[in-house]
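Lab channel / #folding
Pinned by the channel admin:
"Please post every new chain as: sequence first, then the structure tokens as a reply. Keep commentary short and put observations after the output so the thread stays searchable."

First post following the new format, from NK:
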Amino acid sequence: MSTSVIAPSAKIGSSTTVGEFCYFGENVTIGSGCQIGHRVVIHDDSIIGNNVRIDDGTVVGKLPMKAANSATTRDQELPAAKIAENCIIGTNVVVYRGADIGNKVLIADQSTIRENVTVGEFTIVGRGVAIENFCKIGRYVKLETNVYITAYSDVADRVFVAPCVATSNDNYVGRTEERFKHFKGVIIEKGARIGVNATILPGKIVHEDALVAGGAVVTRDVPAKKIVARNPAKVFRDVPSEQLLENQGWKD
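Reply from TO:
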């Protein structure tokens, strides 16, 4: 006798295995060759591609909660959560309805992917990462342990973000109605790298192939191919030629 609850309209592909005490809602689609762990919840309409591994306790398709004074969560109709083929989703991950995860993405344990977020193929989302709503994460990105990507941010392809990096979108730090007019996330352009424990303030741009040193506080835009360091971050020197993205031999 099955210990899982699977809605009659849910579709599960061939060779997919399902653990105990799972719940799959109405119109869920799960591809073939998937491995679904124990106590996994997949909410209505969610779409899971072929050969996806989802570990114990993960939730896919969760609806957002809206506080009375939330500045970023909207009342809206959200599309189904989508996880493309060959992804690995760790333990106790939460992927919200309206998130779209590309091929061969790894999302490590205890991470959260909010609504209106896209994650490009081959990206690694490390343990405990939080990606807030209305964010775009590119291809081949690495977000290391406990990175926080604030709402309305754009992270381009081949970006590396070291552990415990924090970003912000609110210059008013939660006070006065004026703040609602000026919310702006961060932009991290292609190939840029952010060192451990760095902080990027609202609306700042880290331009292509720039490097933000560990512990730096970015209070102004970072020029392309430059290293910035200290608090506030200032240009230190050029990124060495051998470290530039164009010299790595990658095809894309």
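NK: The chain has no helices and 33 strands.
TO: also worth noting, The chain has two domains: 1-63+78-131, 141-252.
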